[in-house]
Amino acid sequence: MKPQRNAMIGEKGVREFCRRRAVQLLQQGESKAVIARVLGVSRNSINVWWRMACAGEDLTGKPHPGRRRRLGDEQLRQLSELLKQGAEAHGWQNNLWTSLRVREVIKRHFGIEFCRSQVWHILTDYLEWTAKRPVNELKKQNDEEVAEWVGTKFPRILKEAAERKAHVVFVDETGFMMYPTVRKSFSPRGEAPVNKVSDPHGRISTIGAIAISPGRDRLSWHYCSLDDNCNFRGPAVVAFLDQLSREIAGPVIVIWDQIIIHSCGVVQDYLAGTTRIKLEEFPAYAPKLNPVDRAWFYIKYDRIPNFTPSTLAQLRKAVDKELRRLTVHSDLLRSFIRYSKLPPFLVKP
After folding, report:
1. Run of H or E residues at 245
2. Cα 204 from Cα 179, distance rounded (Å)
3. Helix or strand (DSSP H, E) at 170
4. Which of 30, 39, 160, 294 is in Cβ range 3.0-4.6 Å of 336 for a Cys bridge?
């Protein structure tokens, strides 16, 4: 007969009692049919409880439905540590993890072979990894030099800016091409989307600046674009510095990359005739320190990806629209600074 369910025990306690009692009766040699009838449970449940007991698992919790995981918790922890070493440490030529590579690592270290969909399930559901686009960094970048600049030189620049009550201005150049920056797009299976490019070499060169006020509480965006298919040289850089001196009141400390046009004779001659503007340089090959670099990325990859204009005039219209848009979105300028590797306290919230 079925046991009487004591209300004081509760449903959870009754289920635990059934599991333990079923295992005890099996150990005593009782048949599964009798146990199922006495406890009012199915024979399949008895089989699950018996396997749990034989494996040394706790019978207090509800068994997980479905097939037992082929990788246990400790193996998943080991797998996570192996993957954090990077793909190069396991013999591949770059540090990109694909489902096929992870599948091979599991096979090598645990002797278990999964299909690609199972590996994807392990990565996303058990290790909580996500698929991300890699961030490129130049191999010539000196990490020690970058750390020393951020920890020592940049605080010195900020201190000088505070003493002079100067704006700190980050400057960078880029080119917007007729050949589009490509982002993924949905399409029917087996049919790749097509962008028809009219002039892959057509370009518009642009220079931009993010200026931080002396009180670090206001941000402003400044920019200038050259004529079609023109590149920035010394005179164009001087023209932009002169534009900054008109648009920003008071002293200015400009921080930009170490490229030739920033230190050419024309620029030096211009600086010799003014005391308002002082120049500072980022470490070599460290574009991620410059928040303006993120502004270019935002426009190219978030605002106008896959854009294939028929003429440079159409491209210029689209680019000008995005450049003007940044002048009224200080929240975006703040996000560009937060995204860079500059100290988070640079701008007041």
Report:
1. helix 234-247
2. 11
3. strand 167-177
4. 294
| Interstrand relation of 252-256 and 203-212 (parallel, antiparallel or unpaired) | unpaired
Where do the structural domains in the chain lie, given as residue ranges?
A: 1-68, 73-126, 143-183+198-346
Q: What is the dihedral of CA 50, 56, 62, 63, to 10 degrees?
A: -60
DSSP helix/strand/coil, 220: strand
Q: What CA–CA distance (Å, rounded) separates 332 from 219?
A: 10
Q: Which CATH class is domain 143-183+198-346?
A: alpha beta
Strands 252-256 and 167-177: parallel
E strands present in 178-312: 203-212, 219-225, 252-256, 277-281
Q: How far apart are CA 296 and CA 311, in angstroms?
A: 21
Task: Report the distance separating Cα 47 and Cα 45, nearest Å.
Answer: 5
**Per-residue pLDDT for the chain (349 aa), expressed as one digit of tens each?**
344 444 444 566 778 888 888 888 888 888 888 888 888 888 888 888 888 888 777 777 666 555 667 888 899 999 999 999 999 899 988 888 989 999 999 999 999 999 988 999 899 888 888 887 776 667 777 889 999 999 999 999 999 999 999 999 999 999 999 998 888 777 788 888 888 888 889 999 999 999 999 998 899 999 999 999 999 999 999 999 999 999 999 999 999 999 999 999 999 999 999 999 999 999 998 999 999 999 999 999 999 999 999 999 999 999 999 999 999 999 999 999 998 888 877 887 7
Check: CB of residue 210 under 8 Å from CB of residue 291: yes
Phi-psi region of 250 (alpha: psi -120 to 50; beta: other; left: phi over 0): left
CA–CA separation, 10 and 208 (whole Å): 69
Helical spans, DSSP H, in 139-212: 143-148, 154-164
3-state helix, strand, coil in the chain (%, to 5): 50, 10, 40
The predicted model scores a pTM of 0.68
| Cβ atoms of 173 and 205 closer than 8 Å | yes
DSSP 3-state of 93: coil
